Each structure stands twice: as structure tokens, then as C-alpha cells.
């Protein structure tokens, strides 16, 4: 096969692995489906892939977004393409090099996004049409070069475009063959202070310095830097820090204790709010330059209304399962929802059965405790009524409460009814 050179090496605008695969197909004048079915699948030697592609299944294409990440899909495809093209280091077209410090959660989009002006420029200059790795990041919604929003559906058929389709061509709709490029629209320019614009600039720095992050970054450094921000901004108060950044407290706790690493989207947001270089956050001790760190209150107040707490499905699922099935302690759904930082409605929407189980468990425990308290109070009443009768003193309600040292004990209707029946049985 042709030794096709990747585009944009060592730049923030490097192409993605799926883009490279599509260009390789175009270079050989075939659709990606043919290249995958007849050339790549036999090399990967994966039974499900050979079976699926031979019968026209979509399992491989549905999971293609992970090719730009760092899971087995990405590593297997890199290995196969390097073997076929003799081009080395194709892993730079993915995020494989920084997998130790950046989790896959919320990292990659499910569908293609693109800048139409970038496509138009590529066409007009005679360059190869390609998709940027940057565009595959979930938190990237703008093109900083042309200061416009990325497009996410075909202009003509209005369909969302898969990351990889059997008939993918970079810059064209695989369904209706519409060209996705357009001239720059000056009326749609984004302000340079726009939150999404700033996040895109920081994402570009992450991609540009992937090599440096791979060498110098560590999970421990990320944890230390997060804890440092919590210490200096809220004097170690995680709940307040989480609330101020619109985070669930349990999520922040997991990050600061190294249980999980923060998604890139959230870390970029934190860097934006504290005016910290994202590359520095991964590779340096930010406390060394503490005088440069300042919470950007203006940016926070301006942008926080647009941002909602991202629903952390896995964390919520884990905690709900613990309370529903594995925990001896019980909790009400109101309290649990507050602890997680989500509304009760949101939790019931995603996990109706678990929420009902937790609620039923809590109700059962409350009923059991109520019964135990009632039985205990009945025994106390029995004891003091009997004692007063033996002393020849009428067991009035007030005397019983005084002896039990429980003022208002017999205000409870059930206990009051029990007391009346007991007096009737004992005296009359």
C-alpha cells in the first residue's frame, strides 16, 4: 500500500487516525469498507470483525470513534496501518500517548464535527481534505482559526455524520454526497472571550504538546495540583470548591483522592477559570507560580449559566448500586441526590429501579425503627403504670411521663391509645 504521510505532525491541527484511514482509501480509489473488509480485517485477525464486515454489519463502524482514542481499537488499527503502509508512529494521530493522565470518559464525540471554512481552504489551496484530531474532542465546539462554530450535521439531508462510515469521504456527506465546505461568514465570528473559543485554544495546546505530556506528566502531579487549588481557593473545603465549580462533591473527592482522573473537558474548564496553562497543569507543580493563579470570577459568573453539571453516569451508578445492594446503611433519595449534586428526577430518569430499591430499603428501615421505638415505649409505659399501681397511686398521663423522663411521650396517638387501654385493663 502507499506510504501516505500523515498531515499536521507536531501541530495542533494534526489529522485523526480515522481521517488517515479515509484518505488511504481515497488514495487507492476504494471506499473505507473495501479497505477494511479485504485488507485490514485479515491483518487484525479478529473473528467478529471479519464476520461483521463480510455480512455488512455496523458493529465495527459504530465503535469507530474509539480509534482516535487509546483503547484496543486505536492500538490495533495503528499496528495494522503501520504494517500496511510502512509509515511509523501513526499513534500520534490518536491520544494514545497521553492515556496515563487523560481518561476516555467524555473525551471523544460520538459523531463527526467539522469547520466548513477549513474544508473550503483545503479545497482551494489544493491540499488534501482531512479531519483534525482536534475536532474529535467532545469539548471542542469551535474553530479558533476561523472563529466559528463547528458544524455537526449535513447542510442538505440534516443527518449527523458517523466518525467512520462505509462510504466516508473527508469533507463530504456519506449519505447525499453534499460538500461540507463554505466560505467564511464574518457575521458569525465568535468573540475571543467566548468560553468555547478559550477551551478550544487550550485543547490545541494539549494536542500540540502531547509528546511533552507523555514524557513529563503523571497522575500524581494532577492530583497534587487539584488538591492545591482546593486548599488555596476554599481552604481545603471540597464541598464549597465543588459547588463553586458546579461539580458533584463525590466527583471532586474521587479526583482529589486519585480514585479517577478528571476528564479533559473538566480539567480545561478548571484551567480556564484559574488562568492556568493546561500543559503546565499536567507536567508542573503549579504552586511554584502561585502568584499567577487567580480565580477568574468574571469569567465564572459569565459562563457558569451556560454550563450544567455533566451527568457522571458511572459514578452515580456505582454509588446507587452500593446503597441499593451492598451497603448496610440506608439513605433517603432526597439526601443522596443532594450529595451527588443531581436532582432526584435526574437520578430516577437514569436509574429508576435502583432509585426505587433505595427508597424502598429506606422506607423499610424507617418502619422497622418506628416499630422498635413504639414497642420500647410501650414497655416503658407498662413498667411505670405497674409501679404506680403497686404504690397505690393513680397512673395519670403526667406521672407516667415524669417517671419515664419523657415529656410529651403520650402525645403520640398510638401510644396514647395503648395507655388508655392499659389503664382500663389494669384498673377497671
Automatic annotation (TrEMBL):
Superkingdom assignment: Bacteria
GO molecular function, one term: DNA binding
A Pfam cross-reference name: TniQ
Domain named HTH cro/C1-type: residues: 238-281
Protein name as catalogued: Helix-turn-helix family protein
Organism in which the protein naturally occurs: Bacillus thuringiensis
